[in-house]
């Protein structure tokens, strides 16, 4: 996609009006110069009339130019708003595995930096449309003055423009490489910020990370500088091209044809008049090339997001369960991360497990045994590479995976707390405050206007906030990925001996990843994983129903 394509597709309904306005601006600009020349060579009696026409041409130019600029900016900004909305929609519908492979740096860069580049081109492009019309009328004026002079000027200008555009391919290459390098830079900067604590414990690690960031930043500097130098060389060349045209008219043309001083002065004035919009168009090519490269990068991102999209649009999603189920079954499921860093990727399976409604199941095993991956497959975040996930015998697939996920409240180890209770707007503040007190967070944060007043808490406290959100969602299935790992002994005991039994009594199904073997008795069954496979499934003698539990609001 190019900037012209963007404007053309967006302005289909008003394309003619935009071209008419740009043409009027060009005509009015040309008339201003024409009336000046006519006034210089006219008698005094026509001076007032010529002045009135001169003012009228200026008014026409201002009105037409304003309309062209305003509409072009509005068209481009509206198109960019649609692109951003479309990207957000595609992100929302993308699969987790696709986003994990894509990374966040490229998305941030495309939706901020690249969109800004296209937005900044709106003004110059609007002026370029007017300049194109001015150039057209100006060349007609030159040809009317002297056809021979026009041919000479056109020949020199054509050769110069061809030379001017010859390095465009190298400029595009530099800009594309700069865009890729910028994504790498953002990734490294994210490493520095997210891994700040870890970097503090190793000066060598910190120095090596810093060196990578500086080296990448320097590479970005070189690429950006090279592109800007080429742009500046083009600008200097366009000025030299004007000198060449003027030199041809003043020093060369009179040697071959008879040109009087009056005609020569008119030709020089005409060339200077024409060269203004031509130079503007040539210099606008910088913004045009940058915006085209940015649009191609945005288009590439959209293609990657399309490839990462599996589920149906929410409006097309079927819900065969209506928020209720009797049994959740994973049948011979496998998941393969694929080749990574030139080697084989981690895989799990085949795994088979059936969880009935109201059951509490613990998934246990060592680090790297595949517990979290299995949870993501079971909850529909990862599509199985083989096998199937069924709910009450109905296959979970792209056209119903969205309503299936709506039955699940999950807190993963890398959970995120949103600023507002999205999806829970209208929740009673009293219920939230009661849960805050129950989780001993009423002195740490509060709840007002559908949001928690403070989220910068310890990991354990933030997990308790996430638990409050999950309880407010009140869904039939709860999935907890090592929720108790960051809790103090008091809340760890509360989680296993109070909260889980209470959820079970409410008929909720709980699937929890755990390392706390002393609390395995609180589960109905314990599934042990090893090397991506289920090693054993043990039924507990007591189970959570035997624990003494208080109610959970």
Automatic annotation (TrEMBL):
SUPFAM superfamilies: ABC transporter transmembrane region, P-loop containing nucleoside triphosphate hydrolases. Residues 328-549 form the ABC transporter domain. This is ABC transporter ATP-binding protein. GO terms for cellular component: plasma membrane. InterPro entries: AAA+_ATPase, ABC1_TM_dom, ABC1_TM_sf, ABC_transporter-like_ATP-bd, Cyc_pep_transpt_SyrD/YojI, P-loop_NTPase, Type_1_exporter. It is a multi-pass membrane protein. The lineage of its organism: Bacteria, Pseudomonadati, Myxococcota, Polyangia, Polyangiales. GO terms for biological process: peptide transport. It is found in: Cell membrane.
């Amino acid at each position: 996609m190019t900037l012209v394509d963007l404007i053309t597709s967006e302005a289909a309904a008003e394309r003619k009006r935009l071209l008419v306005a740009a043409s009027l601006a060009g005509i009015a600009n040309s008339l201003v110069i024409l009336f000046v020349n006519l006034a210089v060579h006219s008698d005094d009696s026509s001076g007032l009339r010529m002045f009135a026409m001169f003012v009228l041409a200026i008014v026409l130019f201002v009105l037409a130019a304003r309309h062209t600029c305003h509409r072009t900016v509005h068209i481009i900004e509206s198109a960019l708003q649609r692109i951003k909305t479309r990207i957000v929609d595609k992100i929302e519908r993308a699969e987790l595995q696709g986003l994990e492979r894509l990374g966040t740096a490229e998305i941030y860069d495309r939706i901020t930096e690249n969109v800004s580049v296209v937005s900044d081109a709106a003004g110059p492009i609007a002026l370029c449309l007017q300049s194109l019309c001015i150039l057209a009328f100006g060349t007609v004026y030159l040809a009317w003055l002297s056809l021979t002079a026009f041919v000479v000027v056109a020949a020199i200008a054509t050769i110069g423009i061809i030379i001017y555009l010859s390095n465009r391919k190298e400029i595009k290459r530099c800009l594309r490489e700069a865009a890729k390098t910028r994504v790498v830079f953002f990734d490294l900067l994210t490493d520095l910020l997210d891994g700040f604590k870890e970097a503090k414990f190793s000066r060598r690690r910190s120095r090596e990370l810093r060196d990578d960031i500086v080296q990448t930043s320097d590479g970005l500097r070189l690429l950006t500088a090279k592109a800007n130098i080429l742009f500046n060389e083009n600008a200097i060349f366009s000025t030299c091209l004007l000198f060449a045209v003027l030199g041809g008219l003043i020093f060369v043309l009179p040697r071959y044809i008879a040109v009087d001083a009056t005609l020569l002065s008119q030709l020089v004035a005409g060339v200077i008049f024409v060269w203004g919009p031509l130079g503007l168009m040539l210099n606008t090519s910088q913004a045009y090339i940058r915006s085209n490269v940015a649009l191609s990068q945005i288009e590439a991102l959209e293609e990657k997001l399309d490839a990462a999209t599996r589920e149906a649009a929410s409006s097309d999603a079927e819900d065969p369960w209506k928020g209720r189920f009797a049994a959740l079954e994973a049948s011979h499921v496998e998941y393969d991360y694929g080749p990574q860093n030139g080697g084989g990727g981690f895989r799990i399976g085949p795994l088979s497990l059936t969880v009935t409604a109201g059951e509490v199941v613990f998934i246990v095993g060592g680090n790297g045994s595949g517990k979290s991956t299995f949870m993501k497959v079971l909850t529909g975040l990862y599509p199985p590479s083989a096998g199937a996930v069924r709910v009450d015998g109905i296959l979970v697939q792209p056209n119903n995976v969205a309503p299936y996920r709506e039955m699940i409240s999950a807190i993963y180890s890398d959970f995120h707390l949103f600023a507002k209770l999205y999806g829970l707007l209208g929740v009673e503040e009293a219920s939230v405050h009661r849960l805050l007190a129950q989780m001993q967070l009423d002195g740490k944060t509060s709840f007002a206007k559908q949001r928690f007043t403070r989220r910068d808490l310890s990991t354990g406290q933030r997990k308790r906030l996430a638990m409050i959100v999950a309880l407010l969602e009140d869904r039939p299935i709860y999935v907890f990925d090592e929720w108790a790992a960051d809790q103090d002994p008091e809340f760890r005991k509360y989680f296993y001996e109070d909260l889980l039994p209470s959820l079970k009594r409410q008929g909720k199904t709980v699937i929890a990843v755990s390392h706390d073997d002393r609390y395995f008795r609180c589960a109905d069954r314990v599934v042990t994983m090893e090397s991506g496979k289920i090693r054993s499934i043990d039924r507990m003698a007591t189970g959570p129903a035997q624990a003494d539990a208080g109610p959970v609001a």
